[in-house]
Specification:
Blueprint (H helix, E strand, L loop, with lengths): L6 E7 L2 E8 L3 E7 L2 H27 L2 H4 L2
Antiparallel strand pairs: 1-2, 2-3
Amino acid sequence: MEEILYNIEIHRKEGGYLGRIYSDMDGVKEFNNNRIDGLLRDITFDMQLALESSNRTVDFTEGHEDLTEG
């Protein structure tokens, strides 16, 4: 099944770049950088952190189903 994780917008502005990422998990986040490679690094790093965090939550709950059953 296909699932959209992020929508990404990148705009060139005076003096740099503006990036926006949209997700159901985190809502809207904005990033500014005067270099495109810096902006892409910032966006990628944020997405990796969010996805790793959500994977850890899933891993934790999958290993502890017996605690929630009563």
